[in-house]
Amino acid sequence: MAETILLVEDERTLSELLSESLRRHGYRVETAFDGDTGLFAAETSLPDLVILDVMLPGMDGWEVCRRIRENPATRRIPVLMLTARREERDLLAGFDVGADDYMKKPFSVNELVARVGSLLRRSAPGVARVKAVQAGRLSIDTEKGEALLEGAPLDLTATEFRILEIG
Q1: The pTM is what?
Q2: Which regions of the chain carry the CATH code 3.40.50.2300?
Q3: CB burial class (10 A; 0-12, 13-18, 19+) of residue 97?
Q4: How far is CA 63 from the centre of its chain?
Q5: Mean pLDDT over the full length of the chain
Q6: Residue partners of 83: CB distance under 8 A and separation at least 6
Q7: How confident is the model at residue 155 (pLDDT cuts 50, 70, 90)?
Q8: Cβ-contact 39, 81 below 8 angstroms
Q9: 158-166 helix and 88-96 helix, angle to the nearest 10 degrees
Q10: How many C-beta atoms lie closer than 10 Å to residue 56's C-beta?
């Protein structure tokens, strides 16, 4: 069965181009053109990956990503963010809300497809995931998305937690 990608992009021409390219590479593609619809689609269809524009009508892509990460049903879905914003602080903000990858517009469609494939391979069901780790006084629970030091919760950004999780 083909993996499903949710593409949340308000530029219809770009959305059509990306959808067609992804379909040619064997993916099923669902589309949304604003943040609210994109979040609803992520929560109801549970795609294998979300490609998310930052600047969207209604809820922006950063908020959509943050909410995807907060929901236990969607928190493990890989998110690749797209944006015309070129500043480093924008890229860092994307990672802080939980993006797995980030591409600046304009970009190569071939590179996007390659990044999609890479994210999907790393998140495949056959890839073992450790649910909880204990290292001395530090406990990491990847299912709950929390880290504890001597039993007290640590206030970590999404990026800091992911670094602990993979480290």
Answers
A1: 0.75
A2: 4-122
A3: buried
A4: 12
A5: 88
A6: 53, 54, 55, 61, 90, 94, 102, 103, 104, 105
A7: confident
A8: no
A9: 70
A10: 23
CATH number for the region 4-122 comes to 3.40.50.2300
Give dist(CA 130, CA 114) in Å, integer: 26
Per-residue 3-state assignment (H helix, E strand, C coil) for the chain: CCCEEEEECCCHHHHHHHHHHHHHCCCEEEEECCHHHHHHHHHHHCCCEEEEECCCCCCCHHHHHHHHHHCCCCCCCCEEEEECCCCHHHHHHHHHCCCCEEEECCCCHHHHHHHHHHHHHHCCCCCCCCCEEEECCEEEECCCCEEEECCEECCCCHHHHHHHHHC
Least Cα distance to 167 among 150, 147, 151, 152 occurs for: 147
Q: What is the dihedral of CA 92, 96, 102, 106, to 10 degrees?
A: -50
pLDDT > 60? residue 97: yes
* Spatial distance between the Cα atoms of 159 and 166, rounded to a whole number of angstroms: 11
CB 164, CB 140: distance < 8 Å: yes
